[in-house]
Specification:
Elements lengths: L1 H20 L5 H4 E2 L13 E2 L2 H18 L5 H24 L4 H18 L10 H7 L2 H21 L6 H19 L3 H21 L8 H22 L6 H6 L1 H18 L11 H13 L5 H28 L4 H23 L5 H16 L1
Helix pairs in contact: 1-3, 1-9, 3-4, 3-9, 3-10, 4-5, 4-10, 5-7, 7-10, 7-12, 8-9, 8-10, 8-14, 9-10, 13-14, 13-15
Length: 374
């Protein structure tokens, strides 16, 4: 297994390195322009096809698994084939900028439907009596599975706004899924989980902190679909694993998405699908880090971008550690999920209440005085 994991990180890192090194050859097609969006914080076009590197890293790991006759090699190839529609929808938008969220979500649901029928990746346990009774009927379970896979995939794309954020969260989630899969003796799920974490770690080498290449919708949707399908299989195959374990792992991106929908629908009175710069990561960038890096030059923008991610990585690491420690204790996991939602709302309210930093006014005053003297 170790060789497959090493191959995954090496292939993903090498592909992303080559895409960055020879960027002039493909930037006209793959480049993400710094203009035209509320969440654009780079000053020059950057390729947004890092997901290609992650996918090829996974393909490399699957190939090594097959050559070494590792348990789960066939499952690995099947899962990659199932995830391709989700990846393809995102990649198409990365290359054309003309694929809206609805087609991407539908293609992700196609992946979920195939996983449901081929692999038995279904939601049927929640440890809530009324919901479990409904999930006992396969049409309800089928619909819930499609919604969950598409929702997690979309949520991973929602938090993909700053260097390393979505991929870093994904690496932590996949590592946790791998650890618990290994603990319950499921080597197939452990292999894919660890290889997935390695592939996205290989991408991070080129992405964080300088942002030489972006994950793109293809990479984010592939990441979310893999996490959701692996989680459904883990809970479905092993009664010992609480269904709240994977939910706690992804509570940050999922709640970020739900909170954004509620905020836009009931507070801002705008379209729930409209892009904005009021996500928690956006507020950290604009209202906290601008206090320490107030400049508008490219270097200050890069520093703000890079320092936005670590606090959210730390929050994800805390949730991941808590989920792994209590993976079979539903009540504890439910308390963790509720605690995170409350802390998120408190942090959001506090950041929204921050006023413009005083030293920024001082800097503007000094700049005006210097201008007058010259």
């Amino acid at each position: 297994m170790l060789l497959a994991i090493l191959c995954s990180v090496a292939v993903a890192g090498t592909v992303c390195h080559l895409l960055v090194k020879h960027v002039a050859l493909h930037l006209a097609v793959t480049g993400d322009s710094p203009q035209g969006g509320r969440q654009k914080f780079h000053s020059v076009p950057v390729p947004r096809v890092g997901g290609v590197g992650a996918l090829l890293g996974l393909v490399g790991a699957a190939a090594v698994s097959w050559l070494l006759h590792l348990p789960g090699a066939g499952f690995f190839w099947t899962l990659l084939a199932i995830a391709l529609p989700a990846f393809a929808g995102g990649l198409a938008d990365d290359l054309t900028r003309r694929v809206g969220p609805t087609p991407r979500l539908l293609l992700t649901m196609v992946s979920a439907a195939i996983a449901f029928s081929w692999l038995g990746a279904a939601l049927y346990r929640s440890h809530m009596g009324w919901l479990d009774a409904a999930l006992a009927y396969w049409p309800v379970s089928f619909g819930a599975t499609l919604f969950a896979v598409a929702g997690v995939a979309h949520s991973m794309n929602i938090i993909d706004g700053y260097n390393g954020l979505s991929a870093g969260v994904g690496v932590l989630v996949l590592l946790a899924l791998g650890v618990i899969s290994a603990a319950v003796g499921d080597t197939s799920l452990a292999l894919v989980s660890f290889a997935g974490a390695a592939a996205y770690a290989g991408f991070l080498i080129q992405n964080y902190p300088h942002g030489r290449i972006f994950l793109g919708d293809g990479g984010a949707y592939l990441l979310g679909a893999l996490i959701a399908i692996l989680a459904a299989l883990l809970v479905g195959r092993h009664e010992r694993v609480s269904p709240w374990f994977p939910f706690v792992l992804v509570v940050y991106p999922v709640w970020e998405t739900l909170f954004s929908v509620l905020r836009r629908a009931f507070y801002q009175r705008t379209s729930v699908g409209a892009a904005d710069a009021r996500h928690l990561h956006s507020l950290i960038y604009r209202r906290i880090l601008r206090r320490y890096f107030p400049g508008r030059d490219a270097q200050s923008v890069k520093l703000r971008n890079a320092f936005t991610t670590p606090p959210l990585w730390a929050a994800q690491l805390l949730m991941t550690g808590g989920a792994v420690a209590a993976f079979d204790q539903t009540r504890v996991l439910q308390c963790q999920a509720v605690a995170f939602v409350l802390l998120y709302c408190a942090a959001y309210a506090w950041i929204m209440g921050l006023r413009r930093p005083a030293h920024s006014a001082v800097l503007r005053y000094l700049a005006l005085r210097a201008a007058r003297k010259t």
